[in-house]
Design goal:
- The relative contact order is 0.19.
- By secondary structure, the chain is an all-alpha fold.
- The protein has one domain.
- The protein is globular and about 25 Å long.
- 77% of the residues lie in helices and 0% in strands.
């Protein structure tokens, strides 16, 4: 996995845990698709 992807996955997971936001909100915050966030945080 690319380093920037690994870092984004960690940031996405922490963001969701800290804020309690939904996958949709996290996707909007990180400017990626909902599918991307869902796939990355469920691996």
């Amino acid at each position: 996995m690319q380093d920037y992807i690994s870092e984004r996955v960690i940031r996405e997971g922490l963001y969701i845990m800290e804020t309690g936001d939904t996958v949709r909100a996290a996707a909007e915050y990180f400017h990626v698709s909902k599918s991307t966030v869902h796939t990355e945080v469920t691996l």
